[in-house]
Amino acid sequence: LEEQEGPMKEWMNNAKLFQNMTLKMASLAGAIIIWLIIMNINDPVVTRIIYDVPVNVVNTSYIESMGLSYKISDGYDTIAVTVRGNRSLVASLTSSRFNVTADLTQIISLETDPVMVPLTVYCPSISSENLTASPRNINIDIEEMVSKEFVINATASGTTPANGFEVGEMPVEPETVTIRGPGTLIDKIERVNAIVDVTGLRTDKDMEPVIRITDKNGEQ
User: pTM for the complete prediction?
Assistant: First the structure.
């Protein structure tokens, strides 16, 4: 009997320890469930839509290296972002907390019109799976880059020199400028003005002008 009592006693002690461990695990699980219930009541998971989040275009050199230019299509410079998270966190979010990027190296196809670029949304306090961009892609317009030479017109832009003096010839060096850009934009250019301020001048002076480009409607 004495030889059997040792192993039997050890087995009973292990059984009691196992029962205690099971009870402890059950208590822990119950505490976690209660905590989750309390958190869900006090700080529930909600869904919120943040509007007017600006889109940042990156890797523009990818397009420019092909002799092309891009422009975000009208209505796609900002998007909406749907966020899912605890109310205490989501309620404080503003559009400035998000970084929405359109990577031009990820263009879906250059053969479509318009060209579609997928968006990536990042917010420091929200995991990516809880962020959804709307729309998920933006449209961009692709154009060939063109160059055109324009004569530079010097102007004092309404400023006057000192009393008894007047503005004479205003030669410009260089006399022309070559402007490169999207064809539709270059075609709108009407004049290239070199503007100087001659207020109070009494002698000839070399001046660095402000270059102003105006379109056919007279708008800068």
Answer: 0.61
